[in-house]
Every structure is written in C-alpha cells, then in structure tokens.
Amino acid sequence: MIRMTTRLAPLAETDGIRVNCLAPGWIATAGVRQHWESLTSAERAARGMPSQLLTTDQISEAVVRLAEDRSLAGRVLVWWSEDAPRLIEWGDRGYRDLVEF
C-alpha cells in the first residue's frame, strides 16, 4: 500500500486525484480496547503492545486532514500509538526519516 500510494502521487497534478495512506498503531475500537484494558501495563509491555491507544476521534481527524489538505498527495502518514503522527519523507525506503504532520 505504501509503494502504491507514493507511485500514484502524480495523479494529483494530471487528473486531480490525490491518494494518501494512513498507517496507524493500535486504535481503541471496542474489541481492541477491551483486550488492552484486560492486561496490566507489564503484560502489555511483555507482549509488545503500546502503552496507550489511539482514539477513533484522533484517527478520523487525521483522515479528514489527509482528505482536505490539497498539498498532500502520495503521502504516507505513520502514527504509532505512543508517537505523534508523522509523514514518511519522500524517497525514504527504510521509513527512518519522518517529518511532522
């Protein structure tokens, strides 16, 4: 999905179609939240789970921004549960260089 998103970036200029991708961490939907809350923080850490969950409101706000911000096309928004949302820098094949969203 990441590769497809970046390859479709030129469609914004040629056809007026913008494609972006959101790669979130754990989202606090009912089932996920129930499972996450059933564990202690030590159990979560031992299982590689995040210390907090993203809310559905946070995710929906990010989606709206990706849809409305015309300067964003072919971009990948990475938002792990403990971090701030960040965009993968153009040409970064290892997803090491993230920039503020």
In terms of topology, how is this protein built?
Blueprint: H1 2-7, H2 11-15, E1 21-24, H3 30-37, H4 41-46, H5 56-68, E2 76-79, E3 86-88, E4 98-100
Parallel strand pairs: 1-2
Antiparallel strand pairs: 2-3, 3-4
Relevant terms:
101 residues; alpha+beta; 4-stranded mixed sheet; 5 helices; 4 strands; 38% helix
Brief characterization of the structure:
The protein has helices at residues 2-7, 11-15, 30-37, 41-46, 56-68, and strands at 21-24, 76-79, 86-88, 98-100. It has 101 residues and is α+β, with helices and mostly antiparallel strands.
Describe the structure.
This protein has 101 residues and is an alpha+beta fold. The chain has one domain. Helix content is 38%, strand content 14%. The protein contains five helices and four strands, in the order H-H-E-H-H-H-E-E-E. It has a four-stranded mixed beta sheet with strand order 1-2-3-4. Strand 2 (76-79) and strand 3 (86-88) form a beta hairpin. The longest helix is centred in the middle third of the chain and has 13 residues, at 56-68. It is elongated, with a radius of gyration of 16 Å. The two termini are 19 Å apart. 10% of the residues are buried. The mean pLDDT is 91.
Q: Specify the number of helices.
A: 5
- What is the subunit organization of this protein? single chain
User: Overall mean pLDDT score?
Assistant: 91
Major beta sheet, strand line-up: 1-2-3-4
The SS-based structural class is alpha+beta
Unreliable residue stretches: none
Describe the largest sheet.
4 strands, mixed
Number of domains: 1
How far apart, in Å, are the first and last alpha carbons?
19 Å
